[in-house]
Amino acid sequence: MFKTTVTDLLESALKERPDLFLIDFSIGSENQIKIVIDGDNGVLVEDCMYISRAIEHNMDREEHEFSLEVFSAGATSPLVHVRQYKKNIGRTLAVKTASGTTEGVVTDATETTVSLEWKVREPKPVGKGKITVTKQENIAYSDILEAKVVIKF
């Protein structure tokens, strides 16, 4: 009953804010509610407060004892949702698959794959020296073990 009520309130709040989406949601022992959200345009403290209030203000503390934490997916958190790949077009990702890790700039993100592009120095086909070559790879989300945004300073 408690989990159903919280789930319904969370879904309702996210319907009101289509720019926000759920990354993780759990209810632990002693009714500890943890919600992780992300947004197409990032997440502000106000967005976390909005979700928190949508749940907290509609729950009866006399009836249920609970704690509630709402936070955004951190910059170094692995990507888990297709919308996170789409919002990171133009940024560099490190994508780990069974065959290794590829680091490149996200050029496209469909419903099933992410496209990465990067430059490498290779020997010239003829003669001495090296040339810079642009490589591209489409990686299916189902093949990704972990993907993280590469933070560069």
Automatic annotation (TrEMBL):
This is Ribosome maturation factor RimP. Residues 25-75 form the Ribosome maturation factor RimP N-terminal domain. It is found in: Cytoplasm. Belongs to the RimP family. HAMAP family: RimP. The keyword Transmembrane does not apply. It comes from Mariniflexile ostreae. NCBIfam families: PRK02001.1. InterPro entries: Ribosome_maturation_RimP, RimP_N, RimP_N_sf. Gene3D superfamilies: RimP-like superfamily, N-terminal (3.30.300.70). Its main location: cytoplasm. Required for maturation of 30S ribosomal subunits. The keyword S-adenosyl-L-methionine does not apply. Pfam families: RimP_N (PF02576). Keywords: Cytoplasm, Ribosome biogenesis.
